[in-house]
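Try it yourself: sequence plus 6-O-phosphono-beta-D-glucopyranose, in.
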Amino acid sequence: MEYKKMSHFPTDFLWGASSAAYQIEGAYREDGKGLSVWDKFVRIPGKTFKGTNGDVAVDHYHRFKEDVALMKEQGLKAYRFSIAWTRIFPEGKGQVNQKGINFYNRLIDELIANRIEPVVTLYHWDLPQALQDEYGGWESREIVTDFTNYAKTCFDAFGDRVNYWVSLNEQNVFISHGYQMESHPPAVNDEKRMYAANHIANLANASAIKTFHDGHYQGGIGPSFAYSPGYAVNGDPKNQVAATNYEDYAAHFWMDVYVYGRYPKMIYKWLTERGTAPVITEADRALLIAGKPDFMGLNYYQTQTIAANPLVGGVGLAAENNTGKKGTSSESGVPGMFKTTNNEFLKQTDWDWNIDPEGLRIALRRIDSRYDLPVLITENGLGAYDKLEEDHQIHDDYRIYFINEHIKAIKEAISDGVKVIGYTTWSFTDLLSWSNGYQKRYGFVYIDRDEESAKELKRYRKDSFYWYQKVIQENGQYL
Ligand code: BG6
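Structure, out:
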């Protein structure tokens, strides 16, 4: 049912791909880099798939020129990567490590020389271990000063060449996984501590954004939020209420704070009654309002289908499928509020993520309606098993289909009137999945390594590499 004329992608649309420092760089102790919480966490037995770590990862630190050459060949207009805080400040604060600055200068210059727009994430989860040890990382308000100082150091060093900054990557994920699900550092399960740490992360985010605006740097800045829109499973008003609860709990609880500087009333009241609401001062409120982003970064992978969940005997939070064995995850929820359930219209990936391109259009529409900000899609992609054939080809037609359908959904949203700045898929090369090792692959470029061995880390272009090259050449005209 279409009611409108289809628009074209804007001519300056940022067709791109993404990565994150810990997942690609390797060189974890080189050139003065300090240790991050992930460098330590991966060494705790049983925490990652087959004990994988990012010590070498895909060795991007030494091979970035080869990787940028591949980006250039593919025709990328933008590349999103993150800066490792521990390369700039090995101890999280104090003395700047010039060698860290030099590395990112070389990378940014290489991108620009190849006419690729750098999209720079300041924080993609690799918190300096020194700050975790000194004051508990995100649990102390001291981090607001240290993160802001780190961010300002990056703005000053790279801001003459960078137009798009991402402040925090998926705050909702690193906070919930770190302080509730125990699957990310610091592997705590404590609701009160979680909401306190989350509030402090909000302050750090707002402070970095405010500093960026006060400093009149070029370009814009925003957080990247992992938004999985919720649908009620059917028209039963009880399920509709549950879906409304879910949106407040899982989405507005972050995005409203970013844009309006306030928490959704219903969730804040619920937390207050549970005794787990964060302490908010008047100064906090002022800072949150002052740190409004220029765009919303959207990481979109899937939707959730929502049903009512009884307070007594209801389903609690379930662990994620980190095995790659389809059908091994179960319903997850908050008793009395909502639970996720199966959607008969959707298929799943091998890791049980719902495949739902239309959901991306819905995500874009909802963000546009509620926040009225341009959206930069900073992640979207398919984690799948890929097979390297003997002739070194990789026939990932499933990924081509997945991305093609999502690009069509973006085109629909643009035609609906949403301002979408760009689309940086997850990911450019294959990389280390935090909890799933190297078997769950996302890239356009295959990296020949596995959990057991880094082998020679050779790069091979997948079929999707050539397909996306053509999409970019045609500016998404023929999908
Ligand atoms: C996002 C993260 O949550 O999802 C990425 O920003 C991550 O860093 C990606 O790799 C995919 O997750 P996973 O668990 O499939 O590797």
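One thing you can check immediately is this: The two ends are 19 Å apart (CA to CA).
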